[in-house]
Design goal:
The complex is a heterodimer. By secondary structure, chain A is an all-beta fold. In chain A, 0% of the residues lie in helices and 57% in strands. Chain A is built from no helices and eleven strands. The model of chain A has no long low-confidence stretch (mean pLDDT 92). Chain B is an all-beta fold. Chain B has strands at residues 4-5, 10-14, 19-25, 32-38, 45-51, 56-58, 62-67, 72-77, 86-94, 100-103, 107-112. In chain B, a hairpin with a 4-residue loop joins strand 7 and strand 8. The model of chain B has no long low-confidence stretch (mean pLDDT 89). The chains are: A mainly beta, B mainly beta. Chain A binds chain B through residues 32, 34, 41-46, 49, 51, 57, 59, 90, 92, 96-98, 100-106, 108, and chain B through 4, 31-32, 34, 36, 41-46, 49, 89, 91, 93, 95-106.
């Protein structure tokens, strides 16, 4: 069966520090991969998605970037974190664009 | 812009009763809809989906109804249990190749024992 892993589960970072969140998927090949951010008490906002290695689509202008160095690895990065980058970051995968997306358990990021 | 929204932010039901969670969507081009359940501190969990060529789909204790005429989606949970307490999100899937999920704000379901 397919599984998705995100780490770390929680992270506290100072303003201006770099960020790297990692997501890996097991049990499937060539998945679509997604990064979302969820503000407290709100829905999910799509940040990036990828349909293949090295292919990244950005949905909103922001302080973050994404990379897909391997088929089942998706990384969310920032060179300098802002206070507004705080939130709950979720990675998801799907077999195709019009199939259900399956989510990891997220990383709660707090910026001090 | 296009959006998906929910009518009720909080729904309280008695254990054993049926629950109905509603969702309105505004993108008439959306052709695929999903309901998710999110428990505290966890990622959303897929519940059920429906495509625009259907108006009803049933799963285990859950039913999704789609009314394209009024752009309305609902999730019905039969015999609601305490474990059903969570935030429920509807999402519509659109964009090139259907890669973009647009989520509603969510409804909190509280089940009273």
């Amino acid at each position: 069966s397919q599984t998705i892993h995100q780490w770390p589960a929680t992270l506290v970072q100072p303003v201006g520090s770099p960020l790297s969140l990692e997501c890996t998927v097991e049990g499937t090949s060539n998945p679509n991969l997604y990064w979302y951010r969820q503000a407290a008490g709100r829905g999910l906002q799509l940040l990036f998605y990828s349909v293949g290695i090295g292919q990244i689509s950005s949905e909103v202008p922001q302080n973050l970037s994404a990379s897909r160095p391997q088929d089942r690895q998706f990384i969310l990065s920032s060179k300098k974190l802002l206070l507004s980058d705080s939130g709950f970051y979720l990675c998801a995968w799907s077999t195709q664009g019009d199939q259900p997306q399956h989510f990891g358990d997220g990383t709660r990021l707090s910026i001090l | 812009g296009e959006s998906v929204g929910l009518h009720l932010p909080t729904l309280s039901v008695q254990e054993g009763d049926n629950s109905i969670i509603n969702c309105a969507y505004s993108n008439s081009a959306s052709d695929y809809f999903i309901w998710y359940k999110q428990e505290s501190g966890k990622g959303p969990q897929f519940i059920i989906d429906i495509r625009s060529n259907m108006d009803k789909r049933q799963g285990q204790r859950v039913t999704v109804l789609l009314n394209k005429t009024v752009k309305h989606l609902s999730l019905q949970i039969a015999a609601t249990q305490p474990g059903d307490s969570a935030v429920y999100f509807c999402a519509e899937n659109w964009g090139e190749y259907g890669n973009k999920l647009v989520f509603g704000a969510g409804t909190i379901l509280r089940v009273k024992s």
